[in-house]
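SEVERITY: medium
COMPONENT: batch folding queue
REPORTER: lab tech (J.R.)

DESCRIPTION
The queue accepted two submissions in a row. Attaching both inputs and their returned structure tokens so the on-call engineer can compare them side by side.

ATTACHMENT 1
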Amino acid sequence: MFWTKNVCRLLLKYFASKPEIGRLSQKVGNSRILASSCRRCDRAMSDCSSSDDISSLLKSVEVSRLMVPGDANLSGNVHGGTTLKLVEEAGSIIATRYYNVAKKKLCPDDYESGAAALVRVERTHFIQPMYIGEVAELTAEITFTSSHSIEVCVTVWAENIIKGEKRLANKAVLWYVPLSLGNPPRLLSVPPLPCVDPKAFEEGQKRYEKQKEERANHQHTKVRHIRPSVSDEDIEIHTVSYSQSVLRHLMSVSECAGYEYAPGGVIMKLMDECAGIVAFKHCRTNVVTVSLDTTNFHEMIKKGSLITLTGYITFTSAKSMEIEVVVDSELVRSGEPKTVRAVSAFLTFVSLDENHRPVKVPQLKISNEEERQRNDMGKIRYEARKRQRLESQGQS
């Protein structure tokens, strides 16, 4: 693949017509907008006889790992959180590598080392289950870059190496932003992808604008903590209070991959664990994750932070249940009792019998008006997921 000056000029013309780019430049301080980066890249390209180094960055990153008992539940189903953590790791690798190598190669005057931070995961469906003893094969590739963000698509295959069979298990789209390694971190600019087809660029720009608007309008649920119900026999079974669970976790240095903040994959794994506890308490059967709704990460979680995950059921259909998990973070070392809501998400679980077949889910018993409102909103989301699934099946 080769960079062309025409591509950069097209990008310059496009972003010059976007006044919000200038406002974003002011917001992030020393960060440059894409137009200025393109000019520097244009000068750098004149000194390069080939773009082999950049082309290698566009090749997919492949990650493989054998699923062991610690990755699964008692029935052998690999936890959805385990898959999400692997997906985020693969995405982080290719996004971080692209930013650093491409920026250093093409824009050396503007280069500052950085790492990719997860800011958003699009709605993700677990297409096929994965089991202990199988190999998870993940392929990650960059599909779009804006002036300050990177879109990564990750495909997950489950391979039975004994039978020689492979099946599609998961596909996910993640958005990253490069941040400086200083404290506090600063938002950095991203070099544009080389040799982008105009149609592909236009489609990517639409996805970028859509997720940008949704992130700006997103508001976390203002849930009040429900009384823990671990040993309270007075709470009626199959109510929100009965299965609601709280999980607390101290973010250790080993979980932060050498950085000051926890990776998004670690947080998603804990969220899935919390939601799994809720689902198990409600059904008392084998439960598995089938989807994660679009999730926005609005606050970074520093290492050493105490995080509190609260999970509770919002809606049940005949064979599935929607569970919301909210994550609050508190930096205990600061000496100030300040808690921020870092992320919240809706996960869908199903109940399985001993043959791994879906069975009916006990219906949720509504106790008050607040729960009824959440249940009504959950039904709307359930219908939307159902429509999206049918549309996807029709296109395939």
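ATTACHMENT 2
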Amino acid sequence: LVSSLIGLILVLAIHPGSSETKELLGAGSTKQRNLDLVDNFLDLGRNLIPNNVFQASMETAITRYTEEVTGNSTIITGKTLDYRSGTNTLGIIFFCLTFGTVLGSVGPSGKPLVNLFSIIDQVIMKMVYMVMWVSPIGIASVIAAKILGVADLALVMSQLGLFMVTVCSGVFFYQFVVLQLIYFMIVRKNPYKFWWGLFQSWMTAFATASTAAALPISFRCMKENNRVDPRISKFVLPIGATINMDGTALFVTVASIFIAQMNNIPLNAGAYATVVLTSTAASIAAASIP
């Protein structure tokens, strides 16, 4: 919510959208999408308690809309529950939390199973460490591929420069000011020293645009660099990577108002509040992969 408000303030102050940008980029699709805010929260509840934990490792529940186009508007005629590709991290975390709580209450008879999961955890982390040796080459390759994938970089920069400046300014302000201030107020220690310990994880997330891809690296950085108890990091980080997508909330807010500015659509205070709340809800239900 805080990141959405920062995006709202910046997009109103910078005003990156203009009718000239629309003339350069073209009209595009004017199809109207009617998304229900309640459905986003209901999808969150469905993913919290998955029907099948094995299916949750590969698919995420989502509400699909059956739409009917009438003139220039689109009317939703029905809703169906569907699944999209992507790990339902929230459901897996909830299942593991419940399973671990019950397993701990069993007592000594459950010790062999606890040892089994502990060994599996060590094996997986060893495999992750092996992959991390080649991560610098992989990150550089991903960044290079993204840059080379742009057909005309100069044209894109000239047309969408203010939009990118707005988004990047909001992300960096939230990352280096807001989060650091919250850390300092609660912990009373140098926040930038803690952030530097997560630099490799931050760069991986930046290059891959995926919180899920950076999660194993975040575990390692929290344990080795910042000396955080693995029991805490392995519980907090997956939840944060699933439902605390601040960058997504900020981007959706800026993009929505940017499109409105580009099409000369006037927005009042109620519309701004709706955009902020909807962007926050959409970021919670967003997939953790690009």
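NOTES FROM REPORTER
The chain is about 70% helix and 10% strand.
No errors were logged for either attachment.
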